Amino acid sequence: SIHSTDPDVRAEMLRNRRGATSLRWLRALLDEGIEVHGQVVVCPGINDGPRLEATLCGVLDEYPELASLCVVPLGVSAHSDEPRMRPHTTDEAAAVCDMVERWQEVFLNTLGHRLVFASDEYYLRADRSFPEPETYEGFPMHEDGIGMARTLELEFFGAADEATGVRPGFFAAVDGAPADGYRAPRTMSTNNTSPSSGMSELSEGFTAPTAVPVRLGKPAPRNGAPIGVLSGELGARVITPLIESLGRNDVRVIEVPNHFFGGNTAVTGLMTGADLNRVLRNEPAGHRYLLPDVCLSRGVFLDGVGIDELCRRVDVVATNGIALREALTP
User: How far apart (Å, rounded) are the C-alpha atoms in residues 186 and 203?
Assistant: First the structure.
């Protein structure tokens, strides 16, 4: 978490005077040849504009060995009590995209790679087209929201043989490390699913299945039933063009506004059971509903609601374009 290379700005953002000098540990890591990926959370009026420009300049000057640097927007929930924290305007988001793209050229010409990337959310909030796939240089920060839209598109249209998912880090490499947190299985075994079918409750070798029907006594949709793809507000903007390209009138995207967190929270991974139930109650029974697994951990949403507590039967689908395409195949 870099946020700023200006000592005073960094100390202010971290609410810790030691934050002014704590980047010396980044320097120590890089000096030992350790691969480090950095992040800057941009807070409007605090570390954006000229201060963000100074940070990118500082990275080039002081930390050019960074593997990558992602620039992401501040998320502000309805529960925030920080009066200075606010979402970006469209113009501010566009300015960040422009600055990152200028600096990508600087890094490319100086270091031989682009190093800095703006998150997909920035392009959505700026109402901009996403960069071309090659711009992402292999999508090293995919799980941080950098290039997710492009990989989903490539996967959906068959231009990628494998899905780009969560990439194992240090703790995944430790022998016997438990699959907790974001590495936990997204769903638990259902009544008619066994570990041999790919739904193990434990972690080792876990691969999310293409679609896991959650039965739990709810009526199964008839063959050929209309399909609703559940998504957060930002995800819906990415998925809708893909669905529309199929030219099918039996598939629709169902946008799920995030009332639980509120504010500008709109990513699919933060969908909650309460918000899904609020939306699904107004959707017809007997339709087929696809739920991306990114919003689950061991079959539970962030608000503690279990998937068995949803008011409609859903099929849990791995969060990638290949799984989505296969789930939609008649």
Answer: 10
In degrees, rounded to 5, the angle at the alpha carbon of residue 108 between the alpha carbons of residues 61 and 37 is 65
Q: What is the DSSP string of 256-296?
A: ---TTT-TT---GGG--HHHHHHHHTTSPTTSEEEEEGGG-
Other Cβ atoms within 10 Å of 214 Cβ, number: 22
Q: What pTM does this model have?
A: 0.84
Using DSSP, state whether 206 is helix, strand or coil: coil
> Which residue type, as a one-letter code, is found at position 149?
A
Q: How many CB atoms lie within 10 A of CB 313?
A: 20
Q: Using CA atoms, how far apart are residues 114 and 139, in angstroms rounded to an integer?
A: 12
As to burial, measured by CB atoms within 10 angstroms (0-12 exposed, 13-18 middle, 19+ buried), residue 33 is exposed
Residues 115-141: tens digit of each pLDDT: 999 999 999 999 999 999 999 999 988
The CA-atom distances, in angstroms, between 237 and each of 144, 163, 268, 271, 293 are: 18, 20, 11, 15, 18
Please state the separation of Cα 144 from the chain's center in Å.
6
Structure tokens at 287: 């339709």
Q: How far apart are CA 253 and CA 189, in angstroms?
A: 27
Cα angle, residue 323 at apex, residues 317 and 325 outer, rounded to 5°: 115
Query: 165: which 2 tokens?
Result: 């998912």
